[in-house]
Design goal:
This protein has helices spanning about 45-60, 90-100, 115-125, 125-135, 175-185, 240, and strands at about 5, 15-20, 30-35, 60-65, 105-110, 140, 145-150, 160-165, 195, 205-215, 220-230, 255, 265. The chain has about 270 residues and is α/β, with parallel strands linked by helices. Helix 2 packs parallel to helix 4 (about 125-135).
Length: about 270
């Protein structure tokens, strides 16, 4: 079992949720950002998600972050068709818990999405928070900042990775617009990795910047990684109505090295 430590860091004017996760003595870890399942929607690909879930369960080095829109939560006032829903929000919440229960000990945290926030706006009930309590994982409605530690305690010391996650926003149709939305996360807080969902489009890119190390009298080149997860919705319905092209479903896999500071993503 990995060791957990979570802190609600609240200084004047700072409202980011800061969470420490110690993943133990591992040579590497996978971070799997799962987003936009849209449970309750007729186009949710449950079979594909179960295959991913079972893979996570079998891989002892795999850990999950839930990025919102886990539930579809159509209402009469939403774009989604409430009359085509397979499950109402309460049923979808219970169903999501049963789907995620086999990997609940691997979930590092979760945020809410714009679909779950429909219920919050109309009733004051945070259905994502309800789900997080069932899964016993850290939660914030807007975003989470992780300090993830792993590596050999005796030989190489620990390796730290900072990760900022939020559901995402915007509806840009071009690749550039989607990349710009993802890049905006770096304007909020400094981190090694930024992860969003929302746009149902899997993409990743990196940038670099220089940091002066005055103690050792040198300039270090530092990498930042940007990752957007896709959805588990098959094409049709809203996507067809809005003339959106089909896109790859599923989610990326981020590898954190536990021996040296090295991280990359597979899509």
């Amino acid at each position: 079992m990995y060791r957990l430590k979570h802190i609600f860091h609240l200084k004047e004017g700072v409202f980011l949720r800061y969470i420490e996760k110690d993943l133990g003595n591992r040579d590497f870890a996978y971070i799997i950002p799962i987003s936009d399942l849209h449970i309750g929607d007729v186009y949710f690909n449950e079979e594909k998600f179960i295959k991913l879930r079972d893979w996570v369960k079998e891989q002892e080095n795999a850990f999950v972050i839930l990025l919102g829109d886990i539930l579809n939560c159509a209402t009469k006032n939403s774009i989604s068709d409430v009359y085509s829903e397979l499950k109402n929000p309460q049923q979808a919440k219970k169903y999501a818990f049963n789907l995620l229960k086999p990997i609940k000990d691997r979930i590092l945290g979760m945020v809410s999405g714009n679909h779950e926030k429909r219920i919050w706006r109309e009733s004051g009930n945070d259905i994502s928070e309800d789900l997080s309590m069932l899964l016993e994982c850290d939660y914030d409605r807007e975003g989470l900042f992780f300090n993830i530690k792993l590596g050999n305690y005796k030989n190489n010391g620990r390796v730290n990775y900072t990760v900022y996650c939020t559901h995402g926003t915007g509806a840009g149709r071009t690749a550039g617009a989607k990349a710009n939305m993802l890049k905006r996360a770096s304007e909020i807080v400094l981190a090694d990795i930024y992860i969003t969902g929302h746009i149902h489009h899997m993409q990743s890119f990196a940038d670099y910047y220089f940091v002066p190390d005055v103690r050792h009298k040198r300039i270090d080149k530092v990498k930042r990684l940007y990752v957007s997860s896709a959805s588990f919705l098959e094409w049709g319905g809203y996507a067809e109505e809005k003339m959106l092209p089909p896109s790859k479903t599923g989610c990326p896999r981020i590898r954190l090295d536990g021996i040296k500071k090295d991280f990359h993503v597979s899509i």
